[in-house]
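hey
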């Protein structure tokens, strides 16, 4: 994460649907970080597919979509 020094990252589950050893999940994120003297505020959504292998849940696929980005002068 060298490109995102000082990042603050939060995530919240939106939905989790389990069917046997497979799960489909959606999580929403909020990120705040500085980039070239500008404070960036991003909101996004992860869409994940997980599988249970030997009793442990693992990610099979993951995609990310940026929902909103706000730019503000540093210190805003």
């Amino acid at each position: 994460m060298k490109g995102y020094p000082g990042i603050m990252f939060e995530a919240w589950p939106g939905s989790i649907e389990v069917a046997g050893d497979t799960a489909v999940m959606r999580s929403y994120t909020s990120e705040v970080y500085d980039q070239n003297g500008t404070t960036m505020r991003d909101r996004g959504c992860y869409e994940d597919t997980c599988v249970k292998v030997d009793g442990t849940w693992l990610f099979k696929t993951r995609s990310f979509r940026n929902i909103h980005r706000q730019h503000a002068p540093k210190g805003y």
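The mean pLDDT is 90. The two ends are 23 Å apart (CA to CA).
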